Amino acid sequence: MTQTPVRTAIFPVAGLGTRFLPATKATPKELLPVLDTPLIQYAIDEAREAGIERMVFVSHPSKSAIERHVMDDVHLRNTLKERGKVELASDLKDAALRAPEDDVVFTMQHEPLGLGHAVLCAKDHVLPGAVAVILPDDLILGRGCIGELIEAYQSMDCGHLVATMPVAAEETDKYGILSVTDRTGNVLRANGMVEKPAAADAPSRDAVVGRYVLDASIFETLTTQAPGAGNEIQLTDAINTGAESVGLGGLRFSGQRFDCGNKAGMLQAVLHIAAQDPEYKDVLDAFVLQGQAPIAA
After folding, report:
1. pLDDT at 292
2. Beta bridge partners of 84
3. Listed residue (107, 117, 109) closest to 224, CA to CA
4. Among candidates 274, 269, 276, which has minimal Cα distance to 138?
5. FRET pair for 43, CA 20 to 30 Å: which of 10, 96, 210, 227?
6. What is the rounded distance in angstroms from the CA atom of residue 261 to the CA atom of residue 94?
7. What single DSSP character describes residue 97?
8. Residues 132 and 126: beta-carbon distance below 8 Å
9. Mapping DSSP to helix (H, G, I), strand (E, B) and coil, where does residue 259 land?
10. How far, in whole angstroms, is CA 13 from its chain's centroid?
């Protein structure tokens, strides 16, 4: 099959972030900082690096702070400049999206009806062709994962391509697991996926994580997709439905993934990034030494 360019990225950001309450009572989880950079910023930068033309954010009316962060704030930048913080103002400008230079759409998912439903909410706003889906709470550092998927997609004959990573047998019940039929290097062929199987029932140990390149037919499939687990419209179910007709592949991406949808994963990401910066060396060294010291009675 001849692949179309991937011009649109969908960011499902309407979730409530209940695992991080009370922190997310007023602050969307996508704005929680990994050290000093919000999760959503990493996702935006990844899409930019991949050459995405249009970014569609599927949000919720209660999460207007996401749009305030994503879009440029000229007043704030001018205030910073007036206070002599020119470099900071420049950094904010570089990070932000600006209309009309940047093609950005915000649309609402008013009810929590599942990831598949969130993707469907973007249907009327995507450019022609296959679409990318980026889940911001899956932080993947290193080479841009969505760019890696898009590059692989152009040379493959499958309609749906998902990012995968190998997991231990005892962890298969935490992920969607690909039913792999063939492997060539880091490229997998599959005939479907199984959602959170027990180790004994898992068709492989190739777990699907939050990056997808999906054939445009995904929207038609989602339109008629019956609710699945949790009585929600599941993206996994729709990908499975289309696997036979358009094909399904997986790519073992090269970056390092942190599950920032939970507290432990967020802490791991913060520590990993802090460890790369000499500014935090003394703090981390002191913490490690403190952990080795005997606990006072």
Report:
1. 65
2. none
3. 117
4. 269
5. 227
6. 26
7. B
8. no
9. strand
10. 9
Specify whether the CB–CB gap between 204 and 183 falls below 8 A: no
pLDDT of residue 297: 42
For the domain spanning 8-287, the CATH number is 3.90.550.10
Among all chains, which residue has been given the structure tokens 């073992």? 252
In this structure, which amino acid lies at residue 280?
Y
CA–CA separation, 8 vs 3, rounded Å?
14
Cβ neighbourhood burial of 214 (10 Å; 0-12, 13-18, 19+): buried
Looking only at Cα atoms, what is the longest distance across the chain? 69
At residue 86, φ and ψ (nearest 5 deg) are -70, -45
pTM of the complete model: 0.93
Is the bond preceding 12 in cis, omega lying within 30 degrees of 0? no
Rounded Cα–Cα distance for residues 121 and 46 (Å): 22
**Can you tell me the distance from the alpha carbon of 103 to that of 243, in angstroms, rounded to the nearest whole number?**
31
The token pair that represents 145 in the structure block:
């994962």
Nearest residue to 211 (alpha-carbon basis) of 155, 145, 157, 261 = 145
Residues of the chain with confidence (pLDDT) below 50: 295-297
| Pair 190, 181: CB distance under 8 Å | yes
pLDDT at residue 295, as a whole number: 47
Q: Are strands 54-59 and 206-214 parallel, antiparallel or unpaired?
A: unpaired
Residue 9 pairs in a beta bridge with 55, 132
CA 56 to chain centre: 13
Q: Cα separations (Å) of 107 from 114, 118, 124?
A: 15, 10, 10
Structure confidence by residue, pLDDT tens digits, 171-184: 999 999 999 999 99
Can you list the alpha helix ranges (DSSP code H) found in 133-184?
145-154
**Token pair recorded at residue 238:** 């729709």
Spatial separation of the C-alpha atoms in residues 282 and 209, rounded to whole Å: 34
Could you tell me the two tokens for 37? 């950079």
pLDDT value for 59 = 96
